[in-house]
Design a protein that fits this description.
The complex is a heterodimer. By secondary structure, chain A is an alpha+beta fold. Chain A has 12 helices and 9 strands. Chain A has 3 domains: 3-78; 83-92 and 99-206, Double Stranded RNA Binding Domain; 252-300, no CATH class. A 6-stranded antiparallel sheet of chain A has the order 2-3-4-5-1-6, with helices on both faces. Among the domains of chain B are: 50-145 and 198-257, no CATH class; 259-362, no CATH class. Classes of the chains: A alpha+beta, B alpha+beta.
Chain lengths: 301, 390
């Protein structure tokens, strides 16, 4: 087993909290039941990790096995990334083809490989006709960086894909292209919607928000949080109180306002009855479901 | 350096309102007037904007660097009875023994199975406001793990014998083991321990200080040491155990120090007023709105230069901050917000303020970012602690 692969697997396993370790290893399904039984999970973590690496070596784990483990880790820790939303559209008059997962995966991978030569692409299908894609980016001359991958969750029955905001932004156009072509669309657009919580994004984008909310109430786990609302203000200060404050200043005040709550829309709606907000509510606060945006920039006209 | 305009006073023993007023500190006067909704308008309270005090030049920036950029939980502490700075070694030994005993009782000490924790007492030179203030001191709990095993030989360079350097000004009592006998086993570490921190990793830190504590110092007898402000970083359970030992040993009492919205807005104004060469953090306010079904958090972050410009426009009294200016500053922020969102922030609860100088949370958590104004921040906190004790 390549040393870089071993190191990568080791670092991935080290990130996994001990109480999730067996679940994730089972989902990975790379080490056999027998092998896992030989591991004493009650030891100190470093010892457990060493043992697991040893077992992976026995089975000759490859980079694609390691990448799959990484995808599974990310599926369990989705909230560690901020997710953007892309919407694709077909050209006018184009037929709606039946989606073929195999063809999509082949096509997606080919497009990236042709452009960059060095790239690791891995897939994992999940329920709801979704596929998780992991891309580790390299260049024509350098090997892929496994530690800064981009993740994409594409719901094949919809025109939407969610991507983890990656540091390596120069690859975004290529990623968009690959997604569009492989899924037989014509155009791709980034929406002004982002959140750490894929479920919230899905709710907004798949227009299921009201429905999902009712079930949220009874089954919401404590950690589940809704979208936030971010508003970037760059407006001049105008006070009613005292006309002289900042009167000579030409520059606007640069502010960023964030609203967050487990149930954002409901919380905002309750502000007016509570007397905290003037009724009717400012349109900025009520347009998330309709406009499907959750960050705005406001400037003086 | 006197941070009050009003003359120093001892808290009045009488409970009559008039006596209360005459002998009261400005803080008490202000609160009394607020409580009574009285029309009596005392001299608007003022505070000096924190400046770089002379005393701060004595504080070695490197020695206090570890105090910055950490979140501290605040407590007020009543005066310590019969505490002596020359007994720090003894206190280390006693506290170590206490912790070991507690661990054996099975009470939770958050250190993990094979680790030993050792506490070290040391003084923090220069951490005071006026000369009268007692010297601040520090307690650190370190992990020592000679039994930790990695692959192959793992050795930690064990310098437990270093009983202070020959330089008397360091005053750091490095206490070795339990009875003074050292572990001479040479154990080198594979993980990079910083070379100056050879005892092990710091797991818990607590420090006691008093910045401009005149109003309290005057009221207590010589047997007491007044260090009303206590800051802790590390696991809550460790704080509890160490706090229990102090309470037993020095007949004192810890009480969590919360910071209400009124004081948070003062802090925001004062820290915005501080002159900064460059800003390391944005100026941010966080409000909590208790609405159904669950709360809403509103964060208002403003570019620090713009916050300063707004403050400068509001600020009229050179070198000082007045109640009126704080109120106007906050009202400006409220009105700017209301203009866009039609929400009355004044009807919500301010829970956190954050600037390039420091950030504070209503639950009594503080993080100091700027070495220059460390004393200034602590002075305000000492004031709050003293008020809570009295």
């Amino acid at each position: 087993m390549d040393e870089t692969v071993a190191e990568f697997i080791k670092r991935t396993i080290l990130k996994i909290p001990m109480n999730e370790l067996t679940t994730i290893l089972k989902a990975w399904d790379f080490l056999s039941e027998n092998q896992l039984q030989t591991v004493n999970f009650r030891q100190r973590k470093e010892s457990v990790v060493q043992h697991l690496i040893h077992l992976c070596e026995e089975k000759r784990a490859s980079i694609s096995d390691a990448a799959l483990l990484d995808i599974i880790y990310m599926q369990f820790h989705q909230h560690q990334k901020v997710w953007d939303v892309f919407q694709m559209s077909k050209g006018p008059g184009e037929d709606v083809d039946l989606f073929d997962m195999k063809q999509f995966k082949n096509s997606f991978k080919k497009i990236l490989q042709r452009a960059l030569k060095n790239v690791t692409v891995s897939f994992r299908e999940t329920e709801e006709n979704a596929v998780w894609i992991r891309i580790a980016w390299g260049t024509q001359y350098t090997k892929p960086n496994q530690y800064k991958p981009t993740y994409v969750v594409y719901y094949s029955q919809t025109p939407y894909a969610f991507t983890s905001s990656s540091m390596l932004r120069r690859n975004t156009p290529l990623l968009g292209q690959a997604l569009t072509i492989a899924s037989k669309h014509h155009q791709i657009v980034k929406m002004d919607l982002r959140s750490r919580y894929l479920d919230s994004l899905k709710a907004i984008v798949f227009k299921q928000y009201n429905q999902t909310y009712e079930t949220h109430n009874s089954t919401t786990p404590l950690q589940e949080r809704s979208l936030g609302l971010d508003i970037n203000l760059e407006t001049k200060f105008k006070s009613g109180l005292n006309g002289s404050i900042l009167a000579e200043r030409e520059e606007p005040l640069r502010c960023l306002i964030k609203f967050s709550s487990p149930h954002l829309l409901e919380a905002l709606k309750s502000l007016a009855p509570a007397g905290i907000a003037d009724a009717p509510l400012s349109p900025l606060l009520t347009c998330i479901p309709n406009k499907r945006m959750n960050y705005f920039k406001i400037r003086d006209k | 350096m006197d941070s009050y305009n009003a003359p120093e006073s001892t808290p009045s023993a009488s409970s009559r309102p008039e006596d209360y007023f005459i002998g009261a500190t400005p803080l008490q006067k202000r609160l009394e007037s607020v409580r009574k909704h009285s029309s009596f308008i005392p001299t608007p309270p003022r505070r000096k904007i924190p400046q770089c005090s002379q005393l701060q030049e004595d504080v070695d920036p490197q020695k206090v660097a570890f105090l910055l950029h950490k979140q501290w939980t605040l407590y007020s502490l009543t005066p310590l009875y019969k505490f002596s700075y020359s007994n720090l070694k003894e206190y280390s030994r006693l506290l170590n023994a206490f912790i070991v005993a507690e661990k054996q009782k099975g009470l939770a000490v958050e250190v993990g199975e094979d680790f030993n924790i050792k506490v070290i007492f040391s003084t923090l030179l220069g951490m005071k406001g006026a000369q009268r203030d007692p010297e601040a001191f520090l307690v650190q709990g370190l992990i020592l793990s000679p039994r930790l095993e990695y692959s192959g030989t793992i050795l930690v360079d064990c310098n437990l014998c270093l009983l202070g350097s020959s330089d008397p000004s360091t005053l750091a009592f490095q206490v070795a083991g339990t009875t003074g006998a050292c572990h001479h086993t040479r154990i080198l570490s594979k993980s990079q321990l910083p070379s100056e921190n050879r005892q092990g990793k710091v797991l818990w830190t607590g420090w006691f200080c008093c910045i401009f504590g005149d109003s309290l110092l005057e009221t207590v007898s010589e047997d007491f040491t007044c260090l009303p402000l206590f800051l802790a970083n590390g696991a809550e359970s460790n704080t509890a155990i160490i706090g229990t030992w102090f309470q037993k040993t020095f007949d004192c009492y810890f009480s969590p120090l919360a910071i209400n919205a009124f004081n948070l807005s003062w802090m925001a104004a004062m820290w915005t007023a501080c002159k900064m060469d460059h800003y390391v953090a944005t100026t941010e306010f966080l409000w909590s709105v208790p609405c159904s079904p669950q709360s809403l958090d509103i964060s208002f972050a403003i570019h620090p230069e713009d916050a300063k410009a707004l403050w400068d426009s509001v600020h009229k009294t050179p070198g000082e901050v007045t109640q009126e200016e704080v109120d106007l500053f906050m009202d400006c922020l409220y009105s700017h917000f209301h203009r866009h969102f039609k929400i009355h922030l004044s009807a919500t609860r301010l829970v956190r303020v954050s600037t390039s100088v420091a950030s504070a949370h209503t639950d009594g958590k503080i993080k100091i970012l700027c070495h220059k104004y460390l004393i200034g921040v602590l002075a305000y906190l000492t004031e709050l602690a003293i008020f809570q004790i009295e």
